[in-house]
Amino acid sequence: MTCDKDIEKIYSLRAEIFKALSHPIRLKIVEYVSKEEKSVGEIVKYVEAEASGVSRHLALLKKAGILSDRKEGLNIYYRLEISCVMDFFTCVNKVVRTKLKSNIDLIEKI
Amino acid sequence: MTCDKDIEKIYSLRAEIFKALSHPIRLKIVEYVSKEEKSVGEIVKYVEAEASGVSRHLALLKKAGILSDRKEGLNIYYRLEISCVMDFFTCVNKVVRTKLKSNIDLIEKI
DNA sequence: ATATTATATTCTTATATAACCATATGGTAA
DNA sequence: TTACCATATGGTTATATAAGAATATAATAT
What we know:
The structure is a homodimer. With about 110 residues, chain A is α+β, with helices and mostly antiparallel strands.
């Protein structure tokens, strides 16, 4: 009972997760909050970006289901909701290394 | 000897990998070529999209370092270059399921 | 040489995303 | 109440990405 539309929808939902992770600041945020929850203020300081922008990045990561938040007084604390996301990073580093290495190989051929 | 600029650059390179995976058609392609290499024609048929678009998606995935290609006669075969990418999918499905489930929980509260 | 097939590229247009600045909300303290 | 602090949202503009159609390349076959 799985129709074409369902499959399309599922691929789109998956793609959204990757899109949420496709920004350097958001990756930095995810890594930062992965060990323990952090307030927006802490995150803003850590990533050295504009507060309003960080706020939007956080909202996006939350909407994607990657982070969750918790209000306490004036502060809002964000934390990693799905910890397996951290496993991506090892693999991504492998891709990055392979790519950088292939560039070096090219340089040597000039 | 790792300066701020290097760190920024590394996060950007990582983000590029995720960006490459942030499109439903590209995800479908990656999955399709993960077991064995496929020609562009086969891929076009499988994903049911326009050839010129698929070609662009393939170029992007190759540029990101996720796929590699091989020419044989008239055909070009693409295959998954970094197999650990497939491990992402289990985790991504987990995120998607959690998200869908939280929507169901919301529906029941209306 | 010409024709054919597979794939890639160019161009245009629509849409999405990001950054920046200003303003708004929502708790807390005085 | 007013003032203050942390965070979020709105508006604008610049830039990036996507889709579609047309054209170009490159390998093979005739």
